[in-house]
Amino acid sequence: MAAKNALLKHLRVKIQPSALSLPPFPLSFNLIRRRFSEEVKGSFLDKSEVSDRIISVVKNFQKVDPSRVTPNAHFQNDLGLDSLDAVEVVMALEEEFGFEIPDNEADKINSINLAVDFIASHPQAK
Description:
The chain is mainly alpha-helical. Helix content is 56%, strand content 0%. The protein has 6 helices and no strands. Helix 3 packs across helix 4 and helix 3 crosses helix 6. It starts with a helix and ends in a 6-residue tail after the last helix. The model has no long low-confidence stretch (mean pLDDT 79).
């Protein structure tokens, strides 16, 4: 055992930090974090674009008077939609933006403002 340890001690190769091709951990971590944050920032839609598209979808909904549609409109109180109509509006928004809104989130979307906030902050919205 002693001979084995003595032999291994002489065979070990020391690696110089300058010989490594990778930068030190904090630098590489910061680079990865910066790249990821740039990708995430770029993946969200502009809120004003989302608002315009949602207003257009709601105005084209058959049961809605287009003159009553505003960025602050509430589906039931301002537009006179019932709960089934609100579900249909959310389904139309899913089709417009190309992703499925989970049921628990869809239940919370009862106004144009809430729809804009949710869709603008969702990375899958197109």
